[in-house]
């Protein structure tokens, strides 16, 4: 049986930040599950940049079914965690079931990949204190407030935590995350 990886997300997650790691990790041989507040079809979004805008724009993206609800997740069955960005982390950080899941991964020092606004979730459980991370650059102050050292870089690896700024950094993000996975949780 293949090692399992959990992706935690919800509506308004960035399409590419969910689907790229989902497909890439499956390609590598992992069994990947998507968990959300409830089992339902999730509505993802596309964030892009338009001339004249001070920040990114948001458009409807792909839909995708959640395999299980946060309340159904047994973190002990998973070898690693992926936390996509988009707007989903803004409201998901308030979910007590999700915070229990996140805490379990950090307490067990399992590999965690986070991108864009995903670090808002790890900040909500105190998982960034004393760590080096990157995130969407507008979150620099949030990362510092959470006790992290922020680096504006394609990817930052701090032990088993691998972070990236946003979807343009996918190749570096997954390359480094797979290096951590192969060492800590190889495909069986």
TrEMBL record:
Pfam families: DJ-1_PfpI
Family annotation (InterPro entries): C56_PfpI-like (IPR006286), Class_I_gatase-like (IPR029062), DJ-1/PfpI (IPR002818)
Domain DJ-1/PfpI: 4-178
Signal peptide (from-to): none
Domain of life, source organism: Bacteria
NCBIfam families per record: PfpI
Family the UniProt entry places it in: Belongs to the peptidase C56 family.
Protein name in the entry: DJ-1/PfpI family protein
